[in-house]
Specification:
29% helix, alpha/beta, 22% strand, 251 residues, two-stranded antiparallel sheet, globular
Amino acid sequence: MKIIGVIPSRYASTRFPGKGLADICGKPMLWWVYQSLKSAKGIDEAYVATDDMRIVEACEKEGIPTVMTSDQCPTHLERVYEVSTKIDADFYINVNGDEPLIESSAIEAMVPVGIDPNESYFANGMMVLRDPIDAFDSSKIKIATDVNGYGMYMARSPIPYPKARSNFQLKKFVGIQCFTKKALQFVADTPRGEIESIEDIDEFRFLENGHKVKFIMTEATTLSVDTPKDLAKVRMIIGDKIANGELSISK
């Protein structure tokens, strides 16, 4: 069984251009994501998938393998699909390029066990929402699942709504995903749906068309970088870990 790790990264982000190259303690953000991905058990190869030579050049400087993809990919899903047409594997694990705090253990939780690589399979990481303010942060996607862990709905607003009781834990999206080649082919063959275009949540491509999305609970303590304010927080966290000897930039 071959498992490829993919970090999609485009330079022309509408909210935060050049985000993947943002400096964090002397290294670009993508470097931190790549270190966790390549260290995860079960990952055979890891690549950054991009459409911009500035990212390619930065990755080459850091010894990070890249795959050049089209600049016409509307979402990260299409970018990972394009990688699947260039590098053959049984499973593709996507780690978003704005997750510099992601732990290898959280990535390992997405490595499939007992899954037929010939079937259409899509799994997504999730975590307990720990900071109450994130419940009202539209950049933090909240998740509702059924009793078997399959997605029912995703939203930028708090779900479920605490009408009858409030003693429960909200769950939020973690930018780690696992796909079979067949699931990625479904992405390529299926246009964006109405709810996906309203919420601007790519994973609705599956839910709107009746495909199951398995959500896997992780112990991730990650903070996705969606804004410069998030970047400042991450710099502080990583800087403290370096100072305490928990992290090193000499990998």
